[in-house]
Amino acid sequence: MPEAKDTLAIHRKALDINLDPTIFGSFAEIGGGQEVARNFFQAGGASGTIAKTISAYDKRYSDAIYSRHQHAKRYVSRERLEVMLEAEYDEVLSFLNETKNPGTRFFSFADTVSTLNFRKDNISHGWLGVRFQLKENAEPNCVIIHVRLHENDNLLQQNTLGVLGVNLIYACYYLWERPNSFLQSLLDNLTTDRVEITMVNMNGAELSYVDNRLLAVQLVKNGMTGAIMFDRYGMVQESDDMLYKKNAIVFRGSFRPVTYVSVDMLKSSFSLFKKDEDYDKKNTIPICEITLNNLLSEGDFDEHDFLDRVDLLNEMGQNVMVSNFREFYKLVRFLTQFRIIKLRVVIGVETFEKVLNEKYYTHLKGGILEALGELFPANMKMYVYPALDEGTNKLVTTKNLSFPESTQHLFEHLVANRLILDIKNMNINYLRIHSKEILDKIHHGGTGWESMVPVFIAKRIKERKLFGYHGNDY
């Protein structure tokens, strides 16, 4: 178990806030999260900080309080949290704005959480947020986070939420100018085996400099979660909201840049998926996945390069996932927790050969058998995109592959049970296109690369001077 950070004790953080005469507000906690306000009371001096606390554990009571906000139908949801933050903040402002002390900065804290039930068969997760002023009479800023709770005990989960809530409020007032320090401080006195922070959103006048997409990637880079998602509009979304009980088809790539091969993989794999009896266009979500390793250049994260890739994929109407899952079985393990109906992973034939290489699974007790067990649950199939052997000019598909005796039977089992399927309706003319060659030509002023990428991608690269493009400077 990793050790918690050696940082300010949680009661010290709560006391620092209590002793700041300018910070004053309310706490609203519904569901399992009832511990945050308690930490401030126990720290001492809370009368100067807490205007009101409310714990609406009963759903009917929660509905009665927030009944005017009919759009927040789910109790543990971002919508419900936003309703709570707005309602509680407006109430504090309306009651106390005229009688406040000079310099007062108001806030509202809220959380809505589902901790473990008696049977321990539910998903433990929650939403926490703070709506807060950084200056007297200023418009409020807002920070919202989503968390998954991993402890197998209700009381432990409640204690974790209490610590997390204090960390969040403290960071809003004292670390708002340093976004990555803000993020890392949320796990002060906690560990990632206790809680996983899966989404964060910061907005407001003083927080307008923050790009929430970069913030989300930092969650993955910091090891605070395994993957984050952006919808087709570039907005950071909680994975559960996008994936729950959907069909999903996942394409892994660098997308640097998007090429005709990328587009052909998307189209041809979708054509194959449409033949599945469970295919439902309205309930199927495509995901372009970029691994963290693909975002790091010589160990550093190039923010502009990342945003360029996401922007281009979004302009194609694609959702984007950034993950820290090098092995495909880890990706599938992550996705299956959202009760996906049918899952399809699109992979190149050369990469597929590596999937059946035993050397990548020596760290597992069950070796390659354990990995394949996780990689191929009942709802999962792998679509394999062919390659061209440029020496013989022959097509390479799974039918051409052979493996060592130790894995050949595993391969044959996957084929016989149609767990791996060759993509057959691809455009063979695109198989000579290689993204590294394109990138080299773009960067060094080479010619001919425009014919290897979609027209609008070439146009955007030139307009925005993406991926090292310098135009006619050479």
Description of the structure:
The strands form four sheets. The protein has an eight-stranded mixed sheet with strand order 8-7-13-10-9-14-15-18, with helices on both faces. Strands 2-1-3-4-5-6 form a six-stranded mixed sheet, sandwiched between helices. The protein folds into three domains: 201 residues, CinA-like (Maf protein, Alpha-Beta Complex), CATH 3.90.950; 190 residues, 3-Layer(aba) Sandwich (Rossmann fold); 39 residues, no CATH class. The protein starts with 9 loop residues before the first helix and ends in a 10-residue tail after the last helix. Helix 1 crosses helix 2 and helix 12 packs across helix 14. A hairpin with a 2-residue loop joins strand 11 and strand 12. The N terminus is likely disordered. Helices cover 36% and strands 22% of the residues. It is an alpha/beta fold and 474 residues long. The longest helix has 21 residues. It is globular.
Overall tally of structural domains: 3
What spatial form do the alpha-carbon principal axes imply? Answer: globular
Strand order of the largest sheet: 8-7-13-10-9-14-15-18
Q: What structural class results from the helix and strand content?
A: alpha/beta
Number of strands: 18
| Share of helix, binned | 25-40%
Task: Assign the CATH class of the largest domain.
Answer: Alpha Beta
Give a topology summary:
Layout: H1 10-18, E1 23-31, H2 36-43, E2 50-56, H3 59-65, H4 78-96, E3 105-114, E4 125-132, E5 141-149, H5 154-174, H6 179-185, E6 195-203, H7 212-221, E7 227-230, E8 236-237, H8 239-243, E9 247-252, H9 260-273, E10 284-291, H10 292-295, E11 296-297, E12 300-301, H11 303-315, E13 319-323, H12 328-336, E14 343-348, H13 349-355, H14 367-375, E15 380-385, E16 387-389, E17 394-396, H15 405-416, E18 420-422, H16 435-443, H17 455-464
Parallel strand pairs: 1-2, 1-3, 9-10, 9-14, 10-13, 14-15, 15-18
Antiparallel strand pairs: 3-4, 4-5, 5-6, 7-8, 7-13, 11-12, 16-17
